[in-house]
Amino acid sequence: AADLEGYLGVEGGVTPFALTDAIDAVDTASAIDKLHRMLAGGANHPLVVIASLTNHYTRMLTLAGAGVAAEPQAAALLGVP
Fold this sequence. Notes:
63% of the residues lie in helices and 0% in strands. With 81 residues, the chain is mostly helical. The longest helix has 18 residues, at 46-63.
């Protein structure tokens, strides 16, 4: 157990994409649960969560209506290597 502790992170922590996935799926209960888990015990500062959400939805809005049909085009448009 001691060898793994450094890889486990904060107990109950979730990745930012778990929250955005729940929001995108219109799963309100799961989104609220993920948000609570992200903020539990000071795991993430609220501004970090807001920045993550802003980044996610800014990228979505950039792609909306851009006529992107494939992942390489989306990556180029977003500046993702």
